[in-house]
Specification:
The protein is an alpha+beta fold. The chain contains four helices and ten strands.
Length: 160
Amino acid sequence: MYKIIKKKQLSELVELMVIEAPYVARNGQTGQVVMVSADEDGERIPLTIQDYDREKNTVNIIYQVVGYSTRRLSKKQEGESLPVFFGPLGQPAHYETASPVKRVLEIGGGVGIAPLFPQMRMLKEKGATVDVVLGGRSADLVILKEEFEGLVDNMFYATN
């Protein structure tokens, strides 16, 4: 079982969970996913690893409550556990180039913002200047603003 350490409402339909998952936290990389289910026999859904903390053995996931499985996941509370949380799966993001990346602009909207965070952190650690455009239907639906503020060089917002 994988304990829910923290749960946070990011917008009306978007939630963040911090899950205690030592193996995934130790081995997960930028761009990979985990398979998650709120119930032992429930549907397994792939979710991007939004962030991880190797020292605390935790993995962050962000999901939008839109269907049966994400509604079941949303009913889980801090201190409860998820019976299914495995990974990391998929190929990690690769940013290897012949010359070092000097400047990057990443653009994301809605829950598509989630996977940008570890990518931007990795590029910043490699010495790149990082800029990001975060978007949403309205300002209150733009997620992770505070997290990006401490990381990127320039941040821009776009709303419908």
